[in-house]
Each structure stands twice: as structure tokens, then as C-alpha cells.
Amino acid sequence: MVQYADCAGLLTNLPTIEDVLDDHASELGHDFIPYRHHVYRVLNLCLAIVGDSRFELEKIALAAVFHDLGIWTNKTFDYIAPSVAIAREHLSARGMADWVPDIEAMIADHHKVTRSRANPQLLVESFRRADWIDVSCGVRMFGVPRRFIADVDATWPDAGFHRRLVELTIDQWWKHPLNPLPMVKW
User: d(Cα 73, Cα 28) in Å, to the nearest integer?
Assistant: First the structure.
């Protein structure tokens, strides 16, 4: 399943991603750059897993830019539903409602611990794996070479993203000790 591209093929700027991030810059605040870097890391890791398919590039880009955005737009760590909602609204407003099921499945399952069975399975599972690679700082690799992951990380440094996730996790744990990771599914 893993077909990785060389570093020269990394995508560093997509209008789809930049436009959505610009629309939410005030909500992201000081997390704008860390989140932007996370989005591009996930995008490129997903493309490496799925086979660098430009065919699904826009769907992957949209899922990547919206998948965690509910953290900031809704100020919640239970952010899957809010992230899906703003993605759905964005797609519907642009006459792309037929993409909603694919994007929704990618966002909904991106923190699933076990393999996704959602359709389209290859795309959803590839996205899930890409996010896990980034969130785990490469501990989970899913067959992607360590060198490729390092190149992606060097191109888009962490910039405090993982530290922010730890802060949000601790805050969630204090407020909801019985539900510290509401976005994780088995």
C-alpha cells in the first residue's frame, strides 16, 4: 500500500489549504503556523501512502485542512463533529456536496486506533495512517520510510504543534477525567 514520493515532490503550497487557513486565521491565532505545518505534513504523508495520486489531491487537502479545525473554531477538544460540520458547510457553499461523504469519513476516522472500514477505504485509511504518523512523531510508521518522514518534518517543522496537543490533552483530562480523549475511536 505504501508508495512514497521523493522529497522533491513534496507539496508545499495549495490554494485550497491556504484559502481555508486564511479564512480561519483569527480563530487559529498563535496556532496558525503549527496547524498549517501539521496540515501539510498530513497531506504529504497521505499522498505517500496512497501513491502520490494527484487524482484525490483536492479531497485529501480538504480533509487535511478541516480535520482538526474544530479545536479552534468551536474551542473544544471534542472536535470531530465540529470539524465535519465546517467542512460540510464549506463544500456545500462551493457546490461540492457530493464530496461530503468522503471528506466526512476521512475526518471522522482520522483518530481511529484500528483500521478504518469506511468508504472509500483506501483514501480514509491512508488519511488515518498519515495523521497517526504525524501525531505519533513517527512512532507509528505504517511502512513509510523513516527518511521520508524526517524530510517531511524538516520541511514543515513542528513549530509547537505537538506541545499544543499535550496542553489540550491535559486541559481536557482536568475538565473531563472520564473522557480525556473524546476524538479517539476504536
Answer: 8
| Domain definitions of the chain by residue range | 7-175
Q: What is the pLDDT of residues 108-154, one digit of tens each?
A: 999 998 999 888 788 999 999 999 999 999 999 999 999 999 999 99
Q: Could you give the CA distance from residue 163 to residue 108 in angstroms, rounded to a whole number?
A: 23
Sign of CA dihedral 122, 124, 125, 126: positive
In CATH, what is the architecture of 7-175?
Answer: Orthogonal Bundle (1.10)
Q: How far is CA 89 from CA 5, 17, 71, 93, 144, in A?
A: 32, 16, 16, 6, 33
User: Are 43 and 107 spatial neighbours (Cβ–Cβ below 8 Å)?
Assistant: no
Q: What is the pTM of this model?
A: 0.92
Q: Which DSSP letter does residue 31 get?
A: G
CA distances from 151 to 10, 121, 146, 156 (A): 9, 27, 9, 9
